[in-house]
Amino acid sequence: MEFFPALTDDHRAFVARQPVFFVATAAEGARINLSPKGMDSFRVLDANTVAYLDVGGSGNETNAHLAADGRITIMFCAFDQPALIFRLYGTGRAVLPQDAEWADLYAQFTPLAGTRQIFVVAVSEVQTSCGWAVPFMTLERERQTLSKYHAAQAGTERLAKWAGRTSSIDGLPVRVATVLPDGGGA
Prior knowledge:
The protein has helices spanning 9-17, 61-68, 102-106, 145-152, 155-163; strands at residues 2-4, 21-25, 33-37, 42-46, 49-55, 71-77, 85-95, 115-129. The chain has 186 residues and is α+β, with helices and mostly antiparallel strands. It has one domain (2-131, 142-164): Electron Transport, Fmn-binding Protein, Chain A (Pnp Oxidase, Chain A, Roll), CATH 2.30.110.10. This is Pyridoxamine 5'-phosphate oxidase. Pfam families: PNPOx_N (PF01243).
């Protein structure tokens, strides 16, 4: 196990090759949330800042937990060679389409249908470990189910659904998007 104060060029290259990552958050009195992510939605912005595009799904626990507590862990693991588990520890926040910094951040991503927010993480520590028990697996293809669902849904319908989801499953408040982003929201 090794710790680093920031992402190196080798770390960036590893992250860029990974098709999936995992996000973990928690808040006092709430359950731990651990979610897999994909869809070419992760970006390294600089040595201590990363961000990922969040597409609406079943819940919005990460938004609620970050507003309440701020702590976040992001994990990547190699399913090929060389074996590696890679964690980013830090504090995060949600940036929504109505926020002033949205346009600059959103320009870093390929638009995705159903985008509701971008999570920005200030990385305080990077950890690597062996990953020797992680199985070998290959990516067959990305699932298109969520993209197709959002592409078939009217933007006004999506906004109305999000407007009704103002709390997490544990009752914590959630800040919701009130406008759709250009290019990926329709």
